[in-house]
# Entry
Amino acid sequence: MTTYNITMLPGDGIGPEIMREVKRVMAWVEETHGVSFDVTDGLIGGCAYEADGVPLSDETLATAKASDAILMGAVGGPQWDGQVPYDKRPEAGLLRLRKELDLFANLRPAMCFDALADASSLKREIVAGLDILFVRELAGGVYFGEPRGIENLPGGGRVGINTQRYTDAEIIRISRVAFDMARKRDGRVHSAEKANVMEAGVLWREEVTKLHAAEYADVKLEHILADNCAMQLVKAPKQFDVILTDNLFGDLLSDAAAMLTGSLGMLPSASLGDGGPGLYEPVHGSAPDIAGENLANPIAAILSFAMALRYSLNMGDAADQVEAAVSKALDSVRTGDIYADGFTRVGTDGMGDAILTALKH
Ligand code: NAD
# Structure
């Protein structure tokens, strides 16, 4: 039997509640797919700061590095806002994890479950069946480029500086992820940049084109200006399969697309590095306003686990089953964030029950 080492970091707020439901889905995969999960629980964020004085201890980091996949809940809460030193705030634990694992590829699906198509701000026919995968470069670009800072100008006044900077190697490694993903999906990549006004965009387009011709000619590649991509996402989002883009444009475009598909409680994500474990986490935060009340929607966390099955544990069939079970559960039950008339309102555990029931039938 294959055993996978999983590091589980529930974190703060609703993290522990939603990860409890993930554990139930993991148990189902163990029972039905002949694998075993060796799970090590760890602390991250505010709870780690309370226990260890740091938001991610060296020991937890070492455990995470040695695992096959890392499943995280969420970090943060008002009790730590402005109350702890900047480098010890909950988010610093997550940033350290991403940096130490060199997680440069952020994968964010924007999928519209049929049952939720009416909850979108766009018309049902425009979003029903939507299935886009964003591949966003996460470790470079304008958020990290030097020079940066705020400086005084000699003649008075100030200037704020950030630098968009990408090397060919950085562009090639993220493009490779996008093309590989497209091969497992509908075989199409749109690469979004601003080659019309930015040299970093010109290089991006050249390198993507070269890699495509050399290694991925079977994948259909189209280049699109990032501003046009934003327009097309709200006009005709179903034209996209994989969208490859940089850190800044990916931040904006994936958030906009995510909101086409319903609630924050539904959105999973994965961050991958070169060979090491991937980090799987919901897009939402720790939702302190509803923590501990059995109100949180566990679907984003469960779909993040499905991504771990697909991308780190080579169990695409189990991932398909989990996603189908989520879709089926949504036909009858809803947590408060996605509630609509005619459905049964359930809590975090009730949504877990419905997904488990769907998995077992
Ligand atoms: P949030 O995502 O935690 O919550 C925003 C709103 O969405 C809230 O009303 C919340 O109740 C609701 N919501 C979020 N997830 C939900 C779920 N699964 N089910 C039902 N409703 C859900 O964002 P916020 O309120 O801006 O931030 C709260 C804390 O989370 C802050 O400390 C912030 O720094 C942190 N945060 C952490 C992460 C992360 O861990 N990756 C991401 C974003 C925010």
User: Anything to note?
Assistant: The mean pLDDT is 95.
